[in-house]
């Protein structure tokens, strides 16, 4: 019997770090999640990622074409989740959309560097891990 693919939510900070520094810990975590499971996306997370990657200061690190290819590949290889249940559990209300994506998408793990989310570990039995913790988690 085939094992069910794990479902992962990656915070925007992890996605941007992975794109900018492919060999970094966030880059490795992104690659493993991308190759071994399903990435979950919501419209809000995608819009936030697009906004961050559209910032002028990113121009010195990546060509616009590279950012567009990353966004297109991410969309192609992710499962888009429609948010039905609104959640208000994070001390930073701007981060609630990550919890909503995880809960609505039945995620197996949230990967983030955001302390406002990490303090909630676990959230509804969903582990909230840093990229380094995630690498240990998948190794075990």
Give me a quick take on this structure.
The chain has a single domain (6-139), classed as Rossmann fold, CATH 3.40.50. The protein contains 7 helices and 5 strands.
Task: Characterize the structure shown.
- The structure is a single chain.
- The chain is an alpha/beta fold and 140 residues long.
- The protein has one domain (6-139): 3-Layer(aba) Sandwich (Rossmann fold), CATH 3.40.50.
- Helices cover 48% and strands 13% of the residues.
- The protein contains 7 helices and 5 strands; from the N terminus they run βααβααβαβαβα.
- The protein has helices at residues 12-20, 25-36, 43-53, 64-76, 96-104, 115-118, 131-139, and strands spanning 6-10, 37-41, 78-80, 109-111, 128-129.
- Helix 6 (115-118) links the parallel strand 4 (109-111) and strand 5.
- Helix 1 crosses helix 2 and helix 2 crosses helix 7 (131-139).
- The longest helix is centred in the middle third of the chain and has 13 residues, at 64-76.
- The model has no long low-confidence stretch (mean pLDDT 94).
